[in-house]
Amino acid sequence: MDKHNLTVLNEFMLTGITDRPELQAPLFWLFLIIYLISVVGNLGMIILTKIDSKLQTPMYFFLRHLAVTDLGYSTAVGPKMLINFVVNDNKISYYFCATQLVFLIMFITSEVFILSAMSYDRYVAICSPLLYTVIMSQRVCWVLVTIPYLYGTFVSLLVSIKIFNLSFCGYNVISHFYCDCLSLLSLLCSNTHDIELIILIFAAVDCISSFLIVVVCYLLVLAAILRMNSAEGRHKAFSTCGSHLTVVVVFYGTLIFMYMQPKSSHSFDTDEVASIFYTVVIPMLNPLIYSFRNNDVKHALHKTLGQLCNIFSQSSLYHMIHINYIMGFKLFSVCLRRG
Question: Is residue 2 part of a domain?
């Protein structure tokens, strides 16, 4: 039976993470802390890799853009989720929902291929160390991050425009805590075959191609490491890949958990938890993983914090000396008048 939509939707209702009032406040504080750590960690990584002279290498160039994408899609979801906890109003406007979907798809798609570019960078660094600076030139690095951004923008606009140009039924409740394309498809009255096919093709191509690049690069890296005679060299090679490999395992592990489960084991609760981990927790974990596991980042962080402490202490000392000088001068002037 054909369904025709004569209702113009101005807003959607998000079901949110929980409908239990006693959990609203604890979850708000939990996710606020997670989001603040994510913002501070990723912004810190962007600034640190920009200003520190020892972090001006291709590896940290890609790390900076990984932080940009993490900050991008966590901010697309996080603030609205926190607001819903506070005001207890899960409404989201039609245009804000479309905007959220655009930025979410754009940053996640970009991150998938930036992780692949980082894998290629590690492959070149370990398998062709003498040609590393030649192969991974600044121009090549910019190409390897610009293409994912442009491609991510194209995919996000294509999918979002296609979805929001179709007709929605009167029912406007999205079974999620953010505007997800699959949840929106269930609200459409129009034939969704074409858009479902587009989403399936892009998702399959993006995930499979990026995952294959990562796997091939690390198989070649592993083969190169096993050929090394020096135990110290093998340890150093493993340590340079450790942080990125951890990030990759967490990222793709969550994707596999979300989309490779059999339908019989799918449930709303498990999908919700996986989505929270994917959109909120991973952007917090990535800068922490690189901070704790990477000595260069730790040294740069300690150095920068030390410089900031010196600046603040010097400025405070100067301020106190200046105040004491003015007070002393005024006291001296009063004494002269009385004398």
Answer: no
